[in-house]
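Give me the fold.
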Amino acid sequence: MVSPHGTLGICLLSKYPPIEGGVSTITYRLARGLAQRGHSIHVVTNANEVESAYRIYLRPEDVEHLETSFSSGGYVRLHTTDCFCPDQFHVPVNNPFTTKLASLAASVVTEHGLDCILSIYLEPYGVAGHLAAEMTGVPHVVKTAGSDVGRLWKGGQFGPVYRFVIERAAGIITGRSLVTKAADFGISRRRIFIAPRFCVPLQEFCPTGVQLDPLEFGHAPSDTSLGDAAPNPGGPPLTLGIYGKLSESKGAFSILRAMRILLDRGIPVRLLAMAHGTEDIERHFRSVARENGVDEHVRQIPFLPHWRVPEFLRCCQVACHLEQDFAIRTHVPTTPREIMASGTCLVVSREAALKQPESYRLVHGFNCVIVNPANDPEEIARSVRDIVCNPGSLKTIGDNGREYVVAVQSKMAFCESYERILVRALSLARKPDLPCPQPPHVLEVYSGGVGPLLAVVVANAVEELQRRGHAEPDSVRGSEEWLRSTLAVITEQGDAGHSPSSAVVEALRFACQLLRGMHNPSDSRERELMSLFRFDEGRSLWDPRQVGRYVPEISGDVLIESYELDPMQWIEHRLSGQKLPAEPTRKPTTIVVVPPLKHNQIRWYSFSGGQRQVLEACRGSLSVDAIGYQMAKTNGEGWKPELVSEIILKLFSVGIVRLSLPSSDWNKRRSTD
């Protein structure tokens, strides 16, 4: 799709393949996505100077991916710094990346007449981008990542420069953790943008396609195989996969120890590791493998470019992402979504699962397998054993995982959002020849989605109080106490029938319900675990053949209220400025409010008619099939079991109900364990 905002010439200053890692991946995908929309992208990078420990293995045909052109007229061109040589020697000896990048970027901007500089990651790219912008006079938009803000900024010798770069930037693209810090610097909030979520390319990350042959790297320069990962004599081995930087906090060493436990219990496994680190980390990895006697069951392959990661995932039956106690708390890994998008069964830490978008949709045993704690080899081994004992679960969990990724990414607009941010930032930098579109949804970060709704309710409640001649309550306007006091006054003096005043009453009740959900005092950690393990309390893996026997029960932390009128319908009329009907339609409605968890906002759902009846039947006593029979008996044959099952699974997928096996099944299984 060609951009509706006109095309831009962009100097993109960042990591890029053959550098390994998330920032390099985002830059590569963003450059192509913007070029596809008609923009001219000039990537300026020091990628050819990356050390071997973090270098991607590129075949000659892979190099062709680094530059491209599209029918839209957009293109990606690559400009790289010269490798360190005697001409650059100075004392103390160091590779002057910042100077080289700034000089190269300024030359590229001038030669090609580019409109702006977008730098991703502060060190050295943000600093170099600032210098190049000062030299050329074009606006600089800087994007922070995880470790630059979470680790480097905290170093006393980095902070002042980073702050200066951000203060002078035309726009700052960042995570929510830096929004307050940037505002405290006196930066206009109009220049602060929440970073759009990266979208895993679903056409590439899918179950079908080329599968990697690990032996391809037998003679590759960076191949560091520990063994041939030959099949275990106990039977065909289960292939586990890991990829990314090696570290204790990412679970690689715990997986090696878990493999020893599994092999001792007669469960054949092997590990394919596209994972590397410093020389010390590599030696430690080998040492732990040998100490546990699993070195002949492990094969380490080079880092692959992002477009080949799906090949790697297709040759793994299970892929693990066991990040725990990660030093950068704001780090949001995309690896779990890549694994699930590929249809591979994901084994993931609780910590990484909760950082995923719409993490309330993730359920242990249904669309992933959650290990808690993730650094416990026994827990890892138990999770893998459960998968081996339920071979049908591999495909089921993999398929459900892909459905999760498709669902959450359907609401994302990665490249389009970056495009709008750049256009917006340039307009704020007083570029009169460029259009100034309205900020996209990713910019609306201060209302939380609830503010406008509550404002409408409060405004109409004030009107109602004035109409009745009552003073406002003494408490803070819009607070839960104020809403309850106002509700009490209006209810005591309410008119008979379903007048507009009755609609205000229902809207006030709904606002109180929302605020109760927002200020839910229950233990956040306990609620997180309840959400992740809401299928059979984590005791089972999903079996699609048994869905009819599962017993649904409303989750304990949701707030449910019944209404005679649909308050959301009335509020939406008010928000849109539509004329209200003289007689609001009576429509018995149930609203479910799901209190917010970490990384998730408060959610609410409205139910009426048959869906409301299905919800009310989820009380932990009837199976899915029994509810279907009850609905057909009450409402006629139009309510087929498949329809009821579909509604209950939707309630389950968003965390409104939990599902469990009948107690008789659980008791029977426990007696045989």
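Residues 219-234, 431-448, 494-500, 666-673 have pLDDT under 50 and may be disordered.
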